[in-house]
Amino acid sequence: MSKILPVPNGWKPAKIKDAAHVNPRSNSVDDDSLVTFLPMNAVSESGLIEGAEIRKAIDVKKGFTSFETGDVLVAKITPCFENYKGCLCTDLKNDRGYGSTEFHVLRPKKNITGEYLHILTRTHHFRGTGELNMTGTAGQKRVPTVFVKNYDFPLPQLSEQKTIADLLSTWDEAIEKTERLIQAKEELFKWLLRELISEPRNTQITTEWKIVKIGSFLTESRISGTNGRDAQKITVKLYGKGVVAKDEKRIGSETTQYCVRKSGQFIYSKLDFLNGAFGIIPEELGGFESTLDLPAFDISDSVSKDWFLYYLIRPEYYTRQLGLAKGATKSQKG
């Protein structure tokens, strides 16, 4: 049984219909007026308007949902509702907008701010409860208007609503800035990797670089181990997700020869190499075993293991290997 949290003093029990008009009508607008148009894909899952269009009112007045600056939109159809699509309508052209018929429109009354109403519609409880109350068939299920109108929530005073909205806005800005920094760092890393691993153009660098074959710094390891019945087996996950202990569902064959693998070795799957099935054996899996279908190699001390992995994951390397791959139904690295 979930714990019921106490409601702060001054907060009053309310339903959305007590604080907002649900799917209200908007006043008419001149045919030649420019308005904002929001198809579903112009409203993000993070609650922002992205890719709004400007159109003449005559082109969208019929067959679309109307709304105004300050309204809150909530996607009503699956999976958009579950994916948190919705927004607070700001900066609409001439304060008017039209959009997908799959939006519920919530127009705040005087006892709630648009920002707080928007926050309310993005809570896990609102979305989770709404999902449970959807009607319709699979693929066409929708959150009904009656659920939105009668959704219960505690309503703070206006001053507290503004404080809460300002605080969450500050957090959102901090998160957005952090995400931008991470993205910028990733892009910088990709650029540096591309510049360093592709043919160097900087003459100061080229004098330090050598063109070598991968085989010149890899030595295959074939330390005899046990068999399929007794071995502690190791495997490689797809898409660069690393080397792990194999979750054995059945006992292997006594006649299958296994080899002992050491931590720090490079290992790959012959069958799924081109699906990113390779990695460096971690320390805790040293001593585990694999067959020759998962060969392992000692890496020369002159080469960084991390650099070698980064080299392998480059699209340029994969493109070249596709032409060399062997195998009828699956690409196999020989």
TrEMBL record:
MF GO annotations: DNA binding
Key words, A-Z: DNA-binding, Restriction system
Pfam families in the record: Methylase_S
Record bears the keyword Ribosomal protein: no
Protein's UniProt keywords contain DNA-binding: yes
Ranges where the Type I restriction modification DNA specificity domain occurs: 8-181
Any Gene Ontology biological process: DNA restriction-modification system
Taxonomy, superkingdom: Bacteria
Signal sequence range: none
Family the UniProt entry places it in: Belongs to the type-I restriction system S methylase family.
Protein known as: Type I restriction modification DNA specificity domain-containing protein
